[in-house]
């Protein structure tokens, strides 16, 4: 009897020890969340790199935030069908790339803060939540909410800069004290700052099984009607890192269009007059530092001229608006803009609709507006002209135009779209 009791007790102790040991091993496994927003790529992505360097298991997450698919203050879809489709394709491509590397992308049809909180509550061992730092109020409100729910659930949110050519820490001035004019900004940056080399992300760690993931929602599930990009569009834009890198290779190396960029950049028709990188830069499928690195390779191996420089010049314009949005804050969205321009604007819906629908009777304006509606794209020259016509010729509130561009442009960027001088 004593022998049997001893063996029984030993058996329990062995099982208990094994269970405790397994629990200890689980608790020693460090886990992290990567919350993707406007960084839908793996190359040159410091958010991804740091998470996979510091954790044993990494959970990649993307949220189709219902707030992005609501309506604007003037009643337009905040994200129109063509931009939403481009986003869907970009998310799908990222998911497929992660799966090929042994990880996955968790999809949630929810706000980022609720999704992160749910994962933190359901999965043990998550100590850090990584996400890219943004600059405007809607995006920074999400950052505050994610930071809060992370802290409440024993994790730390880490906000990492990664959307510009020149890193914010390498500017020759604080962003809040930067020049209000592009030329002084450019000259100071060019004389004292260099873009950092693109990061090599390295081998990815595995993900965590058993986490609920939704299917990528259809346009109908997002409350939108399906629309096809018109076959006459300058390009058949397709979202995703794969398409972005293909376009980069085609533009710089296959067709060598970078060599004539300055002469052709103000064109209107066709896929080759400008780089068309902006849709992929907008949602982070393409890193501006990777573009810069490829331009430098081209200059060193084939040709360096005004055109190769001018595309870098345009990337600095993009940086200028991004950093300026930090300085001006929410005045970006005020009726008078950051400069507090005093003007009585018209919000005549009938007249605005003529502009929106390409029926003003001015062929150049109308052609550009119809191109936007049918392709989600408009040339830089076209944008400047239709915006000027709306505000200066028609006297319509510029915010109506900004909201329509936000809805329709597949390369909508809040910092550039909303700045008015």
Structure description:
It is a single chain. With 421 residues, the chain is an alpha/beta fold. The chain is 49% helix and 7% strand. It has 16 helices and 5 strands. The longest helix is centred in the N-terminal third of the chain and has 27 residues, at 2-28. The chain starts with a helix and ends with a helix. The model is unreliable at 1-25 (pLDDT under 50).
Through-space gap between termini: 92 Å
With strands numbered from the N-terminus, the spatial order across the biggest sheet is 3-2-1-4-5
Q: What oligomeric assembly is this protein in?
A: single chain
Low-confidence stretches: 1-25
What composes the largest sheet?
Answer: 5 strands, parallel
Class by alpha and beta content = alpha/beta
* pLDDT averaged over residues: 93
What is the H-and-E element order? HEHEHEHEHEHHHHHHHHHHH
Shape: globular
What is the percent of helical residues? Answer: 40-55%
- Annotation field: number of helices: 16
- Alpha-carbon Rg, integer: 25 Å
Secondary structure layout plus pairing:
Layout: H1 2-28, E1 31-36, H2 46-54, E2 57-63, H3 81-100, E3 105-108, H4 112-122, E4 126-132, H5 137-152, E5 156-160, H6 182-192, H7 241-254, H8 261-264, H9 278-282, H10 288-301, H11 306-328, H12 349-356, H13 363-375, H14 380-393, H15 398-408, H16 414-418
Parallel strand pairs: 1-2, 1-4, 2-3, 4-5
